[in-house]
Batch of 4 targets.
Target 1
Amino acid sequence: MASKYLLCSFVTCPWVQRAAIVLQEKKVAYDINYIDPDNRPDWFRAISPHAKVPVLQIDGKTALFESNAIAEYLDETTAPKLHPEDPILRARNRAWTDYVSTFASVVTGALYADSEEDFNAKTAKIPAVFAKLDEALALRGNDGPFFNGPKLSLVDAAYAPFLQRYTFMNRLKDVGIIEKYPRLAAWRDALLASPAVKASTVPVIEAEWHKNLLKRKRWLQKFVPESAAA
Ligand SMILES: N[C@@H](CCC(=O)N[C@@H](CS)C(=O)NCC(=O)O)C(=O)O
């Protein structure tokens, strides 16, 4: 019998989105429970050792935490496999999924900068991490459009949420960085167009992300359209 999955989330969480992309790409049914980050319920704290999302509840019994562990678990237990068959390629994929936390902290640092000076300093760090991914894509030996080629992988699921947040940021304040990395830009475009990524969040994710900037009073909030602030 198929397992019943419940993903515990905050509406804009990119790490939950990573797990949701895996579930969507595999066409595995799941429910999602949005928790208020400012008022995390006791039942959630009891199953989430760091009080963070995502948590994946399986059949109402077992709970898994950490997006990478959840993605790997889902790939081991549900078809089709998103990891490559070849062990060397698979190890390289895992090495690049490890790098996503560095990539994410650089991108997120810019998004949540608290002054113009801070924003400029944080965006200045983006080219170095973008260049690394662009070089990794150059070694792919095919035209993609995904990290390994025509099939979406766990690497794609890991990076898509952060490339999407970068895109949201760039729509508010054009920083003109990704255009300098054409392979990365093309990868970003393919990820954002993919049905699994599109279905992995609430449909109004960009507006929700704007609300989050306003709530957290970050510098970028000044570029949020007035309609979002209303
Ligand atoms: N390494 C974790 C990161 C998860 C994470 O940072 N989630 C954020 C929401 S996007 C969170 O729960 N933050 C709450 C907190 O830090 O207290 C993962 O990959 O699952």
Target 2
Amino acid sequence: MGKFTKKIIRFDIETLINELNKALADEYLAAYQYWVGAKVIEGPFSDLVKKELEEHSKDEYNHAEMIANRIIQLDGVPILNPHDWFRLTKCGFLEPKNFKSIPILKQNIQGERCAIGVYDTLLKEIHGKDNITYHLIGKILEDEVEHECDLEQILKNISMKK
Ligand SMILES: [Fe+2]
Ligand SMILES: [Fe+2]
């Protein structure tokens, strides 16, 4: 990290890296939850939902990428061992047990709502203290809001056709 870059961060850097690693854990777990959901989904509307899940999985993976890059830029180390995903996650992992479209959608909506809450809180904490991370997390939050909206819309359409 450049010397001046360090100067413009008015937040404890170790705490910041730790928060970003928690977010990294959540993103990886979310990416996998969508990915595996898209693999096992079955029954009515599964083709439609599968496509959306696959898209979201890629978005979450991209979020993980963005967060890991920022951790490295801050001279931190991104989570090295997947064991730590479960130690650090705030939203956890919802294992799909019922493979039908509606329960899978509901589980993922729950995950998105958790992520939205977590990022909203993080943004409040770093507001005015680290503009780069603030901007980055803001972009991610925008995607999560869109994800929740898309899933809710699909759930609504499916429920109406049933
Ligand atoms: Fe995400
Ligand atoms: Fe998301």
Target 3
Amino acid sequence: MSVAEIETPLLPIRIVPDPVLRKMARAVTPADMDEVRALIPTMFATMYAAPGIGLAAPQIGRLLRLVVIDLAPEKVPTPLVLINPEVVAASEETATAEEGCLSVPEQYAEVTRPARVKVRYLDEHGDKKEIEGEGLLAACLQHEIDHLNGVLFVDYLSALKRNMLLRRLAKDQKGKAARK
Ligand SMILES: [Zn+2]
């Protein structure tokens, strides 16, 4: 890691029930690109420090359609920046896997989603790109794009499971606040 990366300031990650997590993020326009390019290293630094494998701009309070992903930062870092990502194809076949979220800290649940997706996006240079993913990448792409639409993984659970998980989170957060 370079000195520049170490010195990148971290941003506080918004946690449920922060209302920003439920808002629709707007598309990035060419006029936003300077801000977006400045945000990217900060978002990666914040995600790596958390640690997490994906972070969407609404999670740091910016309602822009911007996502960063790195599935294996410790093994083979493959930072992926997606601007205005859009799922353009999804398999009928589904896959169920455990998910967590930096905005729903330390809570995990099984979520069923399309097993494979194709996503169209712009990279950090504004170039049109496409990526196809399965397994962890497919789930992560869908999870992060959901954030841009104000959707959280807990929305896929039954009301009973969701409420249990959110109550447990609220209790944990209260405990943490009391210990501070
Ligand atoms: Zn998340």
Target 4
Amino acid sequence: MGYRKLSACRRLLAVATLLLSLVSLAGCSLPLASESEIDSQGDAEFRKIRANTPVSTDAAERAYVDCVAQAIIAQLPAPYADKNWEVEVFDSEQINAFALPGGHIGVFTGIFKVAENQDELATVIGHEVAHVTQEHALKRYNREATARIGVVGVAIATGTGQAGADLLGMATSLGMSLPFSRGEESEADTVGLRYMAAAGFDPRQSVALWQNMQRKDKLGPPEMLSTHPSPEHRIDDLVAQFPEALALYNKARAAGRSPQCQR
Ligand SMILES: [Zn+2]
């Protein structure tokens, strides 16, 4: 083995040692987030949004959104159904809505431009709440944290040091405005459709909602579509789930769950 080769081997060995120590360091100092930590971040994020966005003062509008949201919340699995959910209507032209870990639902009044009746609004709220019950924010956070450990590892190993120092002080934001993965989006569609149907909202109206969204998209994309895949991809998937959703819907109606939420 010549000198050059030996030196390259030593360098590789040094890099490997650094990476190994980094992994153990990361293991102690950067644990992945727990559900309760994500809940607190959701609480903080919601307070921030409320501090910066005017809320609707239209009592009928607020009661309407609350009526749809509460009907869906009642159908959520434990522990979500028993949580004290906060439902807020923001006075904003944004065509958007969200749900946050910790039990928060936010609807922007702009959503009424595409959600024209209670069933269409239930489609939106069902979808957003499903992101919470399926723990998508927690999963995304931990995906990002893992990816960052890798990036910092390479930075340390290659001698671009400051990133390593940042590792310990890193406070990853929950990044509510970031998109979920395509798989998480279709899971939220599927699970959300079940929730709305079990609450007694007509699941067939989900297609109308996404068609309205698509129509608006041609004039300028609704904010909701900046973090959500194009409606055309989801409509076929939703239709394929109608038999199951309609069975839930008929059962709900037979059991007297027949919401009459009016704007
Ligand atoms: Zn979504």
